[in-house]
Amino acid sequence: MTATVHDVAILSDFRYPGGNSAAIAAEVRAQAEAGLRTVLVHVPSPHNRDGLPFSPRIADLLRDGLAELARPDATTHARLLVIRQPRIFTADLAEVPRVRADRTVMVVNQAPGDAADPRRYYDFAEVRDRVELYFGPDVEWAPISPAIRAQLPGLGAADWHETIDVSEWTPGNRPRGELPVIGRHGRADPVKWPRTADELLLAYPDRPDLRVRVLGGGEIATRLLGRRPANWEVLPFGAQTPLDFLHGIDFFVYFHDPDLVEAFGRTILEAMAAGVPAIIGEHFRPVFGDAALYSTPAGVEPLVRGLWADHERYREVAARAREFVAARYGPASHLARLAERGAGARPAAHRAPGPARHGDPAPRVRPVLMLSDNGAGLGHLSRLMAIGRRLPQAHPAVIATQSYGASVAHREGFLTEYLPSRAVLGTARQRWSAFLQSRLEHLVDLHRPAVVAVDSVPHDGIVAAAVARPDVTWVWVRRPMWRRGTGAEWIARGPAFDGILEPGEFAAEADQGPTVADRAGVHTVEPIMLLDRDDLVEPAQARAALGLAQDRPAALLQLGAGNINDIASPVGRIAARLREAGFQVLLAESMIATEPFPPVPGTEVVKVYPISRYLHGLDLVVSASGYNSFHELLAFGVPAVFVPNRETLLDDQLGRARFAAAAGAALCVEDPESDELERVLSEAVRPRVREQLARRCAELGFGNGAEAAARWLAGLAAENVRSGA
Hints:
Layout: E1 5-12, H1 19-33, E2 38-42, H2 56-63, E3 68-69, E4 76-84, E5 99-108, H3 124-135, E6 140-143, H4 146-151, E7 181-185, H5 197-203, E8 211-215, H6 218-225, E9 232-235, H7 242-246, E10 251-254, H8 266-273, E11 278-280, H9 285-288, E12 293-294, H10 300-309, H11 311-329, H12 331-340, E13 368-372, H13 379-388, E14 397-401, H14 406-411, E15 415-418, H15 422-425, H16 429-447, E16 451-455, H17 460-468, E17 473-477, H18 488-491, E18 499-502, E19 523-524, H19 539-546, E20 554-558, H20 571-580, E21 584-588, E22 603-606, E23 620-623, H21 627-635, E24 640-642, H22 653-662, E25 667-668, H23 676-684, H24 687-700, H25 706-722
Parallel strand pairs: 1-2, 1-4, 2-3, 4-5, 5-6, 7-8, 7-10, 8-9, 10-11, 11-12, 13-14, 13-16, 14-15, 16-17, 17-18, 18-19, 20-21, 20-23, 21-22, 23-24, 24-25
Helix pairs in contact: 1-12, 11-12, 13-25, 16-17, 20-23
GO molecular function, one term: hexosyltransferase activity
Protein name: Antifreeze protein, type I
Domain Glycosyl transferase family 28 C-terminal: 611-692
């Protein structure tokens, strides 16, 4: 299968809370608007503590589908790789990211040091050596501003300046107050403030006829002063969005420690884009030209009072700043430099539709938002896609998944949202629950679904989102056949949902899990499968598609996703026994397997979704007994040997496989490490045994419950719409 080639890969530590993440977010949004595909490659910095979550700006990009998160176990391919934050490379990387790019740019967006210590933050020579070791000698080094270039005069590339879309930074409509409001925002760092209390009060005066608002870092200033002036309002970092904060001030004033080498001044750029005049130090003139107002801390108050008294001039200064920012730092300038490096914008005809924006017309349809868990395989996601492909046009499916299989759903034609799982984000349970709740609430607000169908255990964040959005009908798609003694805590959360949809289970009589005693009010359907029998390819055509000879029996091994336990160990023995019996042997590799199969002599690896489409081209399948593959093999009459996975948390694969064997519908190997494996396979390769299994499967007579499930969910959606929710 041909690897996906992204237009731009951005490599950084996405946990930075300030300008690094804001700059990345602006570039990604510009790229998405131009139809460019972006992938984010996360590399932890040695100076960032463990357990930090991704910046909300980065999480928003992933939530909105504007960028993908690179899988650490797979190679990322891109036309252009952009690396940000040199401090990532102050120590050897524990694991070098697997990135292949036509060109690479290292954006130097932080100075190595300051006036007091030129190497306070990193040694440039060491960073350069590591970057070139990992990504090759042809890396283009691009400073983010003239200030960085002055510290590193050997850099030859043009500056990789910041990007901002002024259309997203609309000026506020706040009525002009009686008193001018001075403000600033940014992350908490002592070097971001004037060094002395005297200079601090010159820049941010303690005057009853002036107001001062601070978003982030105010505790540093008040600690330096030993008090909080009565005219100051201090807000913690993140209490407001920067745009909302800027709508509440009249002047943006920024002065910092004289030793600091400010890389660019992202917060200044944002203020100017939002139509707020910026008063800053003269050293910023190479970046902001005549669009800003330059002063020392002592000159701030006269400038503020003079401009406040001349309303017409105030408006001219604000308008000039916005025009300057749009012309020099707008998305067009960023897209131009991408084009110069071989990653130009795609023609409009080849662009994917962008996400809905605030202010867009309300959708004509009310979709069903379908949330799947991060399963080891694709079972959760496939069940939802099985239902989703059968929903009516009035209530189409929107897939939201924590699984790497998000790309599979996208290729199957679904509008797909990716929510990084707790494992991917590497965050604590409580933080991840808050993230999940926030993202779900956003998706509900964005897509306005009539129903949310959850094929997942009810995590805290899901339950909290259901409580926060009660106008939506919440349904738990709850597969049965859980292992005995597991999951009671999840069953207890069933009342958080408006309904429970239970897919059918052929082995229901052997079900000893907790769902058995919790069937009151549960809506049941037949087993849910992605495809119907008529969707399967004819045998000869299936064999051709799989690269199989027509005149020899063929077997498929599909023992799972490879993400739960070691599935490779019995594969060689199975393949050897089948080859001895004259079979062609295929190994099915999951679309989301984190480790490829080791080479197995005499076999071929297939990576196809859905593999069930080609089952009629096979004479035998040796399979794990997960819900989806189990029911597909029985329903489509394919002779099967089930090798249950005993390491699953909830799914009772052993009970399911035993029941099928007892019913004469399949064979079962409970202990693949024993000689039971060879004994059962010796039976399975006999044509008469396979004929008996196929005949018994044909007698079972169960159908596909996906259509009935879709009708039921569509009915709930229509009822929700009629009620005016």
